[in-house]
C-alpha cells in the first residue's frame, strides 16, 4: 500500500541551508525511501523570485517521492496542514549588532510563525528549529503555539553531535558509523558541552569506550571540546559562508530518528523542553541525550555525571537562562 504524503514545511527555503535541505527531503533522506512528501517552502517577500527558482529546480529534478510543492511568502499558506516543520528562516546577526537586536528580530519572527503553525498546522505537527539562537527561538515558538504539545517542539543540536562523532572518527581513523553515544549538553552555541564520557566505538573485540581508545584525556578535555564548539566559526572562515550541507543533513538525521526511531543501544542529541532531568532547570530548551520510539523522544536517564561535566552543563544552562530573560524582555 502506498503511504499518504507527509507535508513538510521548510522556512527560509530559498537560503543556503534550505537549498541543501529540500532535495534531501525530496529524495527520502528525512522520512524514508518509501514515504511520499509534499514540500511547503516559505520565505520572505524579497526572496520570492529565488524561491520560485528553487521550485523550478525541484520540478526539474523529477523526484519520484515528491508529490507537490507549495512555494509561498504567505505564512498561513506555508503552514497549512503541515506534519513536520523545519524552521530554518531567522534573522542572522550582522556586524555591529548587539545580541539584543538580533534577539528582538528573531522573537518577532518566531512569534508570528508560531501563531501560523498554531492555527494551521496538522495536529501533532513535529517542529525542529534550526535558525539561531535555536534553543531560544524554539522556546518562543512554544510560548506562542500553546496547542502544539511541548514534546513536539525541538531544536537542532544534531549538527554538533555529528561534529563530535566526526572528530572522534578522525582521531581514531575509524568509520564514523562505528562511533556512537557522544552527547551534546545545553545550548547550540559555543557554551555547549560535547561529552564523550558515555561514547563508545565498535572494534573487532566488541564495543570499547572512546576514552580508553583515544588514550589522551588532555585532547578529549581540551582541543576536542573547543573544536566542536567552534566548528561553525571555522567553516565560515574557510567558506566565507556558514555551514549549510552539514546543517541540512543533520536536520534530516534529527527528524528521521525522531519519526522512525533510534537504533537499539544508541542515543542522539536533541534540544528538547527540560523536565528537570540531570538537574537542568525545567522550562529551558536544552540539548540532552535521547532515544526515540514510535515518534516520541525520551531523555536517557541515569548516566553518571562527573564534577567537571556538571560544571560545564551548568554553565551552558546559565547562558540559556540569560537568553530566555533577554527574549522575554524583547516581548515586553
TrEMBL record:
GO terms for biological process: malate metabolic process; oxaloacetate metabolic process; tricarboxylic acid cycle. SUPFAM superfamilies: LDH C-terminal domain-like (SSF56327), NAD(P)-binding Rossmann-fold domains (SSF51735). Residues 6-153 form the Lactate/malate dehydrogenase N-terminal domain. It is an enzyme of class 1 (oxidoreductase). It catalyses: (S)-malate + NAD(+) = oxaloacetate + NADH + H(+). The keyword NAD applies. Residues 157-326 form the Lactate/malate dehydrogenase C-terminal domain. This is Malate dehydrogenase. The gene is BnaA09g16400D.
